[in-house]
């Protein structure tokens, strides 16, 4: 089981790269404050930020976090679960508005900040801590 969890963490970190690449494109368009650029960036990132991001967060919530919560502390893990709810809601809002022909620069900026901060903390704190206890 430990090896499976370690492989899962590796996979999740790899998926972070794809999401953060999409976030970087969206962030650049937000900084330009150009509707067309933002719509193009959201369209280009739709795979990574859409169903793939939903699956990613569900795997973390269902397959990884419950297994490491007892080792790392429920409080540490529950914050990430709560953030997943906010990330998906904000993502859905941004894409819904894009579908209505409106560029949601504020929502996109918040989404970029939240995803970047969330995944950075997973990569730098949560996953290394999980690896540490799994390798002991």
Can you walk me through this structure?
The chain is mainly α and 136 residues long. 91% of the residues lie in helices and 0% in strands. The protein has helices at 2-32, 35-44, 46-49, 51-72, 74-99, 105-135. The longest helix has 31 residues, at 2-32. It is elongated, with a radius of gyration of 16 Å. The model has no long low-confidence stretch (mean pLDDT 95).
- Describe the sheet with the most strands: none
The number of strands is 0
Assembly of the depicted chains:
single chain
Total DSSP helices: 6
pLDDT < 50 runs, ≥5 residues: none
> Secondary-structure element sequence?
HHHHHH
Protein topology:
Elements: H1 2-32, H2 35-44, H3 46-49, H4 51-72, H5 74-99, H6 105-135
Helix pairs in contact: 1-2, 1-4, 1-6, 4-5, 5-6
Which features would summarize this protein structure in a list?
single chain, 136 residues, 6 helices, elongated, mainly alpha, 0% strand
């Amino acid at each position: 089981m430990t090896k499976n969890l370690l492989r899962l963490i590796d996979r999740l970190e790899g998926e972070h790269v794809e999401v953060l690449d999409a976030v970087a494109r969206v962030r650049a368009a937000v900084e330009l404050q150009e509707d067309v650029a933002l719509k193009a960036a959201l369209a280009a990132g739709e795979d990574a930020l859409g169903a793939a991001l939903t699956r990613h967060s569900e795997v973390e919530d269902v397959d990884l976090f419950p297994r490491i919560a007892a080792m790392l502390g429920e409080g540490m893990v529950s914050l990430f679960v709560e953030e997943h709810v906010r990330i998906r809601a904000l993502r859905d809002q941004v894409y819904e508005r894009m579908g209505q022909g409106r560029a949601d620069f504020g929502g996109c900026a918040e989404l970029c900040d939240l995803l970047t901060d969330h995944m950075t903390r997973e990569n730098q704190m949560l996953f290394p801590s999980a690896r540490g206890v799994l390798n002991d």
